[in-house]
Write a structure and sequence with these properties.
2 helices, elongated, 12 strands, 8-stranded antiparallel barrel, single chain, Lipocalin, mainly beta
Amino acid sequence: MNRSLVGWIVAFILAIGGAAFAWVWFAGGSGEPSTELMTPTIVSAGGSQSFVITAGGPSIASFEIDEELRGSPQTVVGTTSEVAGQVQVDVNDLSTAQFSDIVINARTFMTDSERRDRAIRGPVILNSASDEFEFVTFAPSSIEGLEGSLDPGDTVGFAVTGDLTIKDTTNQASFEVSATLVDGDTIEGVASARVLRADFGIGIPSVPGVANVSDKVILTLDFVAVSG
């Protein structure tokens, strides 16, 4: 093969790669929220106390997914403090607990790469650059294993099942939860679920260097809910 032909092929590949990166960059938008994330409301039950997860921290929502980047396997972690929700709890009767929707501003997820962040916000993955799909929502429908009472310092484990909506797709998901009553005013804990990105129509853009992206995604909420 002569040198001119080799040079043309190399230039073509670079041009295609550059176009792909440019598309990812502009499709991902700025990552700035379109509006302030407000805490979902829930009707208070008699004897219950309201504990609120407020957007902006200290609670953190995150995802983990495995990929191969330039031939090396790695785990990608994306995090955001733009998560909000509320729970009504009677510490003397946990079986009456009620959960509001948990809402995450998916546009604000950040990893260790701005280029990846823009790709995540783009149409193929979360499409959160679009105002229509800016938020991921979990709407609890049932609770299992939450009973008895809770004193300061006690930890309980239970499961919350509900409808998880990502982009324009809703599927059922179940979160395993561990929660500790730190004191009379604060509940801290972690909730985690495993989902398949294919179930939510989440693809992966074709860009150079990225391959073998796992279908399994771990969703986690490290939460601090404060009485309010």
